[in-house]
Amino acid sequence: MVDLQGQGDPPEDKGGHRSLTRSKSLRGLGAKYGGTLRKRYSNIHRTLKAKKECPSCSNMRLKRVASGIWKCASCGYTVAGGAYDVSPKAQQR
User: Fold this and answer.
1) Residue 61 maps to which CATH number?
2) Cβ distance 77 to 71 under 8 Å?
3) What is residue 32's predicted lDDT score, i.e. its pLDDT?
4) Residue 83 falls within a domain, yes or no?
5) Are 86 and 62 in contact (CB under 8 A)?
6) What is the pLDDT of residues 1-50, one digit of tens each?
7) Are 55 and 43 within 8 A, CB to CB?
8) Contact 72, 57 (CB under 8 A)
9) What's the pTM value of the predicted model, to 2 decimals?
10) Cβ atoms of 69 and 85 closer than 8 Å
């Protein structure tokens, strides 16, 4: 028996359609809500889930407890900030 796994041409795409890869933050949205809103949601979600540095101990373990409240998992320091980021920046439109 010959093992052909990993050899040969990849399967052809039928119909000439591009395969779309979606980010994890857009998994629940599907085709709804329009492209602009999905892009905005994706940017906010990426900002929210990015690693943040603690202003007190400089560890990258700052997590959001509630909207605008951030707490360091290593030193316990709690700080009030923006809803999606510790230091909110002016949004560019």
Assistant:
1) 2.20.25.30
2) yes
3) 81
4) yes
5) yes
6) 555 555 555 555 566 556 556 566 677 777 788 888 888 988 988 899 89
7) no
8) yes
9) 0.63
10) no
The encoded tokens of residue 65 equal 């407890």
CA 32 to chain centroid: 19
Q: Which amino acid is at 35?
A: G
**CA 28 and chain centroid, separation:** 13
73 inside domain: yes
Structure tokens at 24: 């994890």
Q: How many CB atoms lie within 10 A of CB 49?
A: 12
Residue 82 structure tokens: 């923006």
Taken as a whole, the chain contains a residue count of 93
Q: CB atoms < 10 A from the CB of 62, how many?
A: 23
